[in-house]
Specification:
This protein has helices at residues 2-8, 29-50, 59-87, 93-118, 125-143. It is an all-alpha fold and 145 residues long.
Length: 145
């Protein structure tokens, strides 16, 4: 994927043949746990949509739905960065720090959103509490990638 992307964009990377492909997302247990949180958020939103819950129209809902997906993507990216660094193919260092920053921002925004949504009298309240707890449990692992 990296090789094809570089070639398509016209980049002449000297060590491109040395770059190995990282494992698929499902091969990383941490990514699978983050994906489970995302799946639960999707279920909460679907149930809320079916019962026309007002919280779906809030900024906190928009942040929750956007950033849970962003978190999944960035967790995978950071796991790939870490994998590349570990195999020593010279790829992954360049955006490790920035991705670390993005992960922390995603977590901060998700915690804020979930905290606000947990205050609502909504049929999905318990689901928000569960997702918030799961993310709190995963946070240390995510920032240590």
């Amino acid at each position: 994927m990296i090789k094809a992307d570089a070639a398509a964009k016209g980049f002449d990377i000297v060590n491109i043949d040395d770059i190995k492909e990282p494992p698929l997302p499902k091969m990383f247990p941490l990514w699978r746990k983050v994906r489970e949180c995302g799946t639960e958020v999707t279920k909460l939103a679907k149930r809320a949509e079916e019962s026309e819950e007002l919280w779906l129209g809030t900024e906190d809902a928009a942040d929750l739905l956007w950033y849970i997906n962003t978190l999944q993507a960035k967790v995978y990216r950071q796991l790939c960065n870490r994998w590349h660094i570990k195999v020593g193919d010279g790829y992954g260092d360049f955006d490790y720090e920035y991705t670390q920053y993005v992960l922390k921002e995603c977590l901060r925004i998700l915690k804020k959103s979930l905290n606000e949504l947990c205050k609502l009298d909504s049929p999905q309240k318990w689901g928000f509490i569960v997702v918030a707890g799961e993310l709190a449990n995963l946070e240390k692992r995510i920032v240590k990638i």
